[in-house]
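Async update (no meeting this week)

Hi team, since we skipped the sync, here's where things stand on the single-chain job. The sequence we agreed to prioritize is pasted below, unchanged from the tracker. I ran it this morning and attached the output directly underneath so nobody has to dig for it. Comments welcome in thread, and please keep replies under the output.
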Amino acid sequence: MADNGIQLVLENYIGGKFLPCSAYIDSYDPSTGRVYCKVPDSGSEEVDAAVQAAKEAFPDWSSRSPADRAQVMNKLADLMEARLEEFAQAESKDQGKTMTFARTVDIPRSVHNLRFFASSVQHHTTDCSQMDHMGCLNYTIRSPVGVAGLISPWNLPLYLLTWKIAPAIATGNTVVAKPSEMTSVTAWMMCKLMNEAGVPPGVVNMVFGTGPRAGDALVGHPDVPLVSFTGSTATARVITERSAPYCKKLSLELGGKNPAIVFADADMEQCVSTTVRSSFSNQGEICLCTSRIFVERSIFPEFLEKFVAAARKWKTGDPSDVSSNNGALISKEHLEKVRGFVKLAREEGAQVHCGEGVDALDLPARNLDGYFMPATVISGVKDSSRVMQEEIFGPVTCLAPFDLEEEAVSRANGVRYGLAATVWSRDVGRVHRVARRLQAGLVWTNCWLVRDLNLPFGGMKNSGVGREGGKDSYHFFTEVKTVTIKQ
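Output:
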């Protein structure tokens, strides 16, 4: 793809057709720092056309049975799975992640999202109540909302795009989706399979472009009653303001500054290996990654030594190399932002044990201009520092000792985010007690990133509004109506 000097040029997918755009944006291969793709720079005209196509497709699609819609979704999943390697290569090149991660996580989960919601939507029930003393029977009906505006991020491009598209169309809505302009290729590839899968024209529309142009036009469109967004808290504020005049339904999955609390009775080896993975997977570019690690003081020196040693073995390199644990960060600008946090930590007197500025990267010649950064471990950072308060979204984590359980919980909660947390202890009572007190939408104990898609996903505080998952997505993408029958 885009080799031998030939650039890939994407087109919007509207009403079942690929349509060119009058302007395009350069998209870079993060592992080389070179432009390899042109992405449409869509605006209000393209969004209007996509919304109109979605509105026209809505009556037929929403009238189909859940089983009929599921058949189409499963066919799309089958087609994607048959091309798993092609999708994985594209995702790795477009985002910078390793081929291994794309092959084993991103694309399989994208396929699973379609199959999961195709099935789960057929098993929900509605409510019913009797009022015998009034001679009345009450029941609820759930109906699709209409045109869903979906905006997905650049870190897990197809994974999180299908996490939104699947429940939206499973419940009978039609969709106008806008992937990140930095990672649009796999969304475009999926659109090429829509017709063969039997997805009617206009049910799924893909408009590529930037947030300020295409995204703004989508969230502010009067005929889009529902918006699901995954991205930064700052962008979510803008979306909320733009949506407010129309009273749109909003689902906002935002950033995190996720803590891990490690008690002295934790399984040290399991904790170290899992927490290295939770800190640095996908270059640390996962909203659920661990970025603050609080360790009980009695084991802090041992834990720090073992953690730094394990982090040094977490190889950053060519994404196509099967021995690489991490690939490149998404962009030059993002790399400089992440490096800036490490620089700030040094200026404030913290110690950088490994990674940025300490360990040199050994990269092939073709990757020397790529956006690479080694796994970086810092200690001695004050809780009030921006390094401990703001989302870095890169391969950087900070370690700090604590003395008492109360102190650990208070410090873990001492940020404006509340997405996820992990607790490491063999004490069952403590695990339940701490999990209850942590201000986070997800708490893992003695593990990380174990997900039952039936259960709610989302954050507290500045980490989001609403929840996603089997039943929660079903509720979000439908409107409920109460019917009362007098007997």
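Quick observations from my side:
Residues 99-120 form the longest helix (22 residues).
The chain is about 40% helix and 20% strand.
Reply here if anything looks off.
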